[in-house]
Amino acid sequence: MTPEEQIAKMKKAIAQAIKVMGDRFGSTEADVARAIDELKTSMLTAPAAAAPSPQAQVAVAAEA
User: Fold this and answer.
1) Are 17 and 61 in contact (CB under 8 A)?
2) Which residues, 6+ apart, have CB-to-CB distance to 46 below 8 Å?
3) Contacts of 18 (CB under 8 A, 6+ apart)
C-alpha cells in the first residue's frame, strides 16, 4: 500500500470514528466498536517510511 493510500485510509477511518462518536443516539455500540477497530487497523498498517515529526526534525537540526 502506498503512503497516499494509507493516508486516505486513515482519514476515512478518522472521519467515520468522529461521525459515529458524535452521533450518540443514532449509533450502536457495534458501530462504535467497528469505528475503533478501523482506526486501530489503519494505524497498525502505517508506512514505515513516514515523514518524521516536526519535533524530531528540530532535535536533529539542534544536534547539527
Assistant:
1) no
2) 6, 10
3) none
